[in-house]
Amino acid sequence: MPTQIKRVKKYLSLNLATAIVLPLLITSCNSDAPVMERPEKVYYDTAQRRMKANNFFSAIESLEAIEARYPFGRYAEQAQSELIYAYYMNGEDEASHEAAEKFIRLNPRHPNIDYAYFMRGIASYTRDKGMFARIFKSDLSNRDISGAKQAFGELSEFLTRFPQSQYAPYASQRLIYLRSLIAKSELVAAEYYLKRKAYVAALRRAKYVIENIPNSSETMRALKIIRECYQALGYFELMEDIEGVIEVNGGSIIETTESSSWNFFSRKAPQPNQN
Questions:
Q1: Do residues 113 and 136 touch, judged by C-beta distance below 8 A?
Q2: Taking a C-beta distance cutoff of 8 angstroms, is the pair 246, 265 a contact?
Q3: Is there a domain that residue 242 lies in?
Q4: CA-CA-CA-CA torsion for 111, 262, 219, 233, nearest 10 degrees?
Q5: How far is CA 52 from CA 82, 86, 89, 116, 262, in A?
Q6: Is 11 among the domain residues?
Q7: Global pTM?
Q8: 194 located within any domain
Q9: pLDDT digit of tens for each residue in the chain (275 aa)?
């Protein structure tokens, strides 16, 4: 009898152990089990390592995780500003522009707000440009330049708001190129109208360059188109006035060109400061 009692106790003990351990094993193997959250700093440090390695695709994942999981955390605002940079360097111009707009809207007093305004203008230029234009650097004056005009406006706003910003020299150099590009585009249209004897339309385009983009690399070209239009329209006095301007300034109008160190297709951009 005692032997039977011992066997029953042993049986119950084994079944009790099985009842406790088996659910634990099942839970540990269950793929739907909750995953422990990674600390915010781990995500941020991972993003920094990935950006240093130029692995912007993976850096974006880490920065987006901070924004989604720790929207009010210590690194949330810094992650938002660095997303602007990471998107841009990853070729996601639309996302970079949207991130800059969002940062400006949510953090108007942030120390990096000037960076957001700056990168918004840069992203405006490069977004929606075709791969062939990026590879072959084709003459963009013959293409739709609405992005260039938007970039010109946004970078001009940036310089007005933050003339002492560390990014101001970068913006100024890019504005030189944009001014030249917009002027060239207007004069391509002016010459098109000129060939078809649409002199009023040609005159309007050339005068736009003189009045709105003064001292660009295309100033002399615009003056010559205006002179030709005045002559064709019979405005001889105005034609003579323009000839006088050309004669006086023919050798002195400085044609500003884009700095060779700047190329919108190079995907070079400064990172935001870390605060």
A1: no
A2: no
A3: yes
A4: -100
A5: 12, 11, 12, 20, 22
A6: no
A7: 0.72
A8: yes
A9: 554 544 445 444 544 444 444 444 444 444 444 445 678 999 999 999 999 999 999 999 999 999 999 999 999 999 999 999 999 999 999 999 999 999 999 999 999 999 999 999 999 988 745 433 443 354 544 566 788 889 999 999 999 999 999 999 999 988 988 888 899 999 999 999 999 999 999 999 999 999 988 778 899 999 999 999 999 999 999 999 999 988 887 655 544 444 434 454 456 677 888 76
- Token duo for residue 157: 């706003």
**Can you read off the two tokens belonging to residue 72?**
């009010």
Distance separating alpha carbons of residues 11 and 6, to the nearest angstrom? 9
| Domain count for the chain | 1
Give the position of tokens 């060239």. Answer: 184
* Residue 255 within any structural domain of the chain: no
Which pair of structure tokens corresponds to residue 44?
A: 């941020």
* Residue tagged 């339309």 (tokens): 201
Residue with tokens 């933050």: 162
- How far out from the chain centre does Cα 102 lie? 13
Rg (CA), the chain: 32
Which amino acid does the sequence have at 179? R
Take residue 81 and report the two structure tokens written for it. Answer: 């500003």
